[in-house]
Amino acid sequence: MRDTLGVLLAGGAGERLFPLTRDRAKPAVPFAGQYRIIDSTLSNCINSDLRRVYILTQYKALSLNRHIREGWGPVVANELGEFIEILSPMQRVSKNWYTGTADAVYQNIYSIGSEEPKYVIILSGDHIYKMNYGLMLKQHQDSGADVTLATLPISPDEVSAFGVVEIARNGDVTGFVEKPKETNIRSPFTPDMVDVSMGIYIFNTDVLIPELLKDAENPESKHDFGHDILPKLLGRFKVQAFNFVDENKTKALYWRDVGTLEAYYEANMDVAGVSPTFNLYDQSWPMRTRPYQYPPAKFVFGEPGRTGMAINSIVCSGSIVSGAVVRNSVLSHDVRVNSYADVDSSIVFSHVNIGRHCRIRHAILDRDVHIPDGTVIGYDPTEDKKNYFVSASGITVVTRDYSVYENPVSSDFLQQRENW
């Protein structure tokens, strides 16, 4: 890994996670109470001993930048040449913002070149999974590949959201199609499945840089690795597939693109469950994050009908469950749930206050929201839509606008809700 540079793409707008991404970048969205989505990939880097990482940010990156600076900068030893460093768009080689994944890397080509890596590993900051990139690098070296991409078997009816990879029995990539509506391609290793790209690539640097330069000069290109770079490598370079090895160590491979509200909600509900598929408590593959200085979580009152308790839930530091019941939920830092409230199957971000006698279920409460006494959320979608954002599957998202306008909400907020 000493000859390898990590380039982590973290500039996506995350439109499908709206309104959670209205004020923050997708990789900065909280996950499992105390983490951010990007912490999964960064933890993989550290656990894989990859300690030179550039993070390319762009979209509403203030909270993400703070999280990286305060939580991840101290993890590495700068005096040994290690770094986890943010690269915001500098327009050094272009007057545009990043126009695609390949363009984002191209616009930082001087920073990459200055480190003189032999290999560059391209990563995404918006997936939840555990992976040892060192195993992938070893296969890349042993096979003599110019490019290696990580692949994952999925059901054929899911291919429209992925880059489909055609693989020979020896592991060589012989075809690549970005997000087809359907495909007849099947995995040579699992015949009823389709191998798809995980968005993780290892390039020999002497292959990557010329290809980025060539792509940047092509006005017809979308400047995207999946659409443009990878298909054009086939037949000209040795491109290998690396079958995903899951460090999560469960029967089913765990890799989640939490890019929709539904996928994000289900991933959080999983970690709060009795036997979660994604194990946060595995000491052999720890998931790290920015440390927060809050007091311990607290549960108070034990009277009949007024008992502070949390069942099958994650409750982070600084939170107080005061004579309320929390079930199957995730509470971030500094959350207050007041007496006689009932919170079920919900995700509560930090600095939220839930008033007395509130009933909340199947909801996501954004940070800094105050829920007035007696509020009911998640029981009547028709009523919820008058004040909040409700997804197609019925997840109610309460944002900070509501804590400002409450009831009746302003016409400005109603117009925003219609635009959602």
TrEMBL record:
<feature type="binding site">
    <location>
        <position position="197"/>
    </location>
    <ligand>
        <name>alpha-D-glucose 1-phosphate</name>
    </ligand>
</feature>
<keyword id="KW-0320">Glycogen biosynthesis</keyword>
<dbReference type="InterPro" id="IPR005835">
    <property type="entry name" value="NTP_transferase_dom"/>
</dbReference>
<feature type="binding site">
    <location>
        <begin position="178"/>
        <end position="179"/>
    </location>
    <ligand>
        <name>alpha-D-glucose 1-phosphate</name>
    </ligand>
</feature>
<dbReference type="GO" id="GO:0008878">
    <property type="term" value="F:glucose-1-phosphate adenylyltransferase activity"/>
</dbReference>
<keyword id="KW-0808">Transferase</keyword>
<dbReference type="GO" id="GO:0005978">
    <property type="term" value="P:glycogen biosynthetic process"/>
</dbReference>
<feature type="domain" description="Nucleotidyl transferase">
    <location>
        <begin position="6"/>
        <end position="271"/>
    </location>
</feature>
<comment type="pathway">
    <text>Glycan biosynthesis; glycogen biosynthesis.</text>
</comment>
<dbReference type="InterPro" id="IPR056818">
    <property type="entry name" value="GlmU/GlgC-like_hexapep"/>
</dbReference>
<keyword id="KW-0321">Glycogen metabolism</keyword>
<feature type="binding site">
    <location>
        <position position="98"/>
    </location>
    <ligand>
        <name>alpha-D-glucose 1-phosphate</name>
    </ligand>
</feature>
<comment type="similarity">
    <text>Belongs to the bacterial/plant glucose-1-phosphate adenylyltransferase family.</text>
</comment>
<comment type="function">
    <text>Involved in the biosynthesis of ADP-glucose, a building block required for the elongation reactions to produce glycogen. Catalyzes the reaction between ATP and alpha-D-glucose 1-phosphate (G1P) to produce pyrophosphate and ADP-Glc.</text>
</comment>
<feature type="site" description="Could play a key role in the communication between the regulatory and the substrate sites">
    <location>
        <position position="58"/>
    </location>
</feature>
<dbReference type="InterPro" id="IPR029044">
    <property type="entry name" value="Nucleotide-diphossugar_trans"/>
</dbReference>
<keyword id="KW-0547">Nucleotide-binding</keyword>
<dbReference type="InterPro" id="IPR023049">
    <property type="entry name" value="GlgC_bac"/>
</dbReference>
<protein>
    <recommendedName>
        <fullName>Glucose-1-phosphate adenylyltransferase</fullName>
        <ecNumber>2.7.7.27</ecNumber>
    </recommendedName>
</protein>
<dbReference type="InterPro" id="IPR011831">
    <property type="entry name" value="ADP-Glc_PPase"/>
</dbReference>
<feature type="domain" description="Glucose-1-phosphate adenylyltransferase/Bifunctional protein GlmU-like C-terminal hexapeptide">
    <location>
        <begin position="295"/>
        <end position="398"/>
    </location>
</feature>
<comment type="subunit">
    <text>Homotetramer.</text>
</comment>
<feature type="site" description="Could play a key role in the communication between the regulatory and the substrate sites">
    <location>
        <position position="97"/>
    </location>
</feature>
<keyword id="KW-0119">Carbohydrate metabolism</keyword>
<dbReference type="InterPro" id="IPR011004">
    <property type="entry name" value="Trimer_LpxA-like_sf"/>
</dbReference>
<keyword id="KW-0067">ATP-binding</keyword>
<dbReference type="GO" id="GO:0005524">
    <property type="term" value="F:ATP binding"/>
</dbReference>
<dbReference type="Pfam" id="PF00483">
    <property type="entry name" value="NTP_transferase"/>
</dbReference>
<dbReference type="Pfam" id="PF24894">
    <property type="entry name" value="Hexapep_GlmU"/>
</dbReference>
<dbReference type="InterPro" id="IPR005836">
    <property type="entry name" value="ADP_Glu_pyroP_CS"/>
</dbReference>
<keyword id="KW-0548">Nucleotidyltransferase</keyword>
<feature type="binding site">
    <location>
        <position position="163"/>
    </location>
    <ligand>
        <name>alpha-D-glucose 1-phosphate</name>
    </ligand>
</feature>
